[in-house]
Amino acid sequence: MNIFPFPRTAELASAPIGVRASQGLRFGVTAAIFTLAFGISLPAMARAPVATGDAEIARCIRSAAHGKPWLERTLWGLRDQEGGWIGAAVVNSNGTHDLGPLQINSWWVPKIATLVGRPETHVRHWLQNDACFNAEAACWIFLSGLAAAGDYWKAIGVYHSPTGWRQLRYAASVSQHLRRRFGSQIW
């Protein structure tokens, strides 16, 4: 069963994504394995988690990145920007909600539910309460944006908004978070 499919590009190749069951209805979505010609082989240097739930979030971000340090760093930049937590459901002014540690907008719920073949209520619950499902979905959203845009910073912006000026502001802010967490050599 392929989950979260998106097009191949010259720089990006994807492997099928499957769904794994864990503890009843709790499902995690395994991320595609991506290779970039300029992939970095150095390990990601994420700071140690300190708050409750951060150890689980860190484990899930590492898992979602599938050994790709650049992707793990990217997910940390998004997490630091979003500032979510396990169980988060933050109401937006447009009536949507930002869910879980990486604050996946509830706008994505129907699309993800269709892709994983599960009811929207389950997907929403998993995005909000399952750190690994949330990180896998965030990874898929970012990588889908990267495949479509062909530009790393544009994909960062697309993760946040379809609006150009919001994308630029968001990408600049994520860049600052990456520098704070990983120093001047984020790659």
Q: Which helices and strands, and how do they pair?
A:
Layout: E1 19-21, E2 27-29, H1 54-65, H2 69-82, E3 89-91, E4 97-99, E5 104-105, H3 109-116, H4 120-129, H5 131-149, H6 152-160, H7 164-182
Antiparallel strand pairs: 1-2, 3-4, 4-5
- What is the succession of H and E elements? EEHHEEEHHHHH
How much is the average pLDDT? 77
The appropriate CATH architecture is Orthogonal Bundle
Tell me the radius of gyration: 15 Å
Regions with little confidence, pLDDT below 50 for 5+ residues? 1-50
Strand percentage: 5-15%
* Text of the CATH class: Mainly Alpha
Strand runs, count = 5
Specify the helix fraction band: 40-55%
Query: Which class of secondary structure composition applies to the elements?
Result: mainly alpha
Measure the end-to-end span: 33 Å
**What is the count of structural domains?**
1
User: How is the main sheet built?
Assistant: 3 strands, antiparallel
In short:
With 187 residues, the protein is mainly α. 49% of the residues lie in helices and 7% in strands. The strands form 2 sheets. Strands 3-4-5 form a 3-stranded antiparallel beta sheet.
Structure description:
With 187 residues, this protein is mainly alpha-helical. The chain has one domain (19-182): Lysozyme (Orthogonal Bundle), CATH 1.10.530. 49% of the residues lie in helices and 7% in strands. The protein contains 7 helices and 5 strands, in the order E-E-H-H-E-E-E-H-H-H-H-H. The strands form 2 sheets. Strands 3-4-5 form a 3-stranded antiparallel β-sheet. The radius of gyration is 15 Å and the shape is globular. The chain starts with 18 loop residues before the first strand and ends in a 5-residue tail after the last helix. Mean pLDDT is 77; it is low at 1-50.
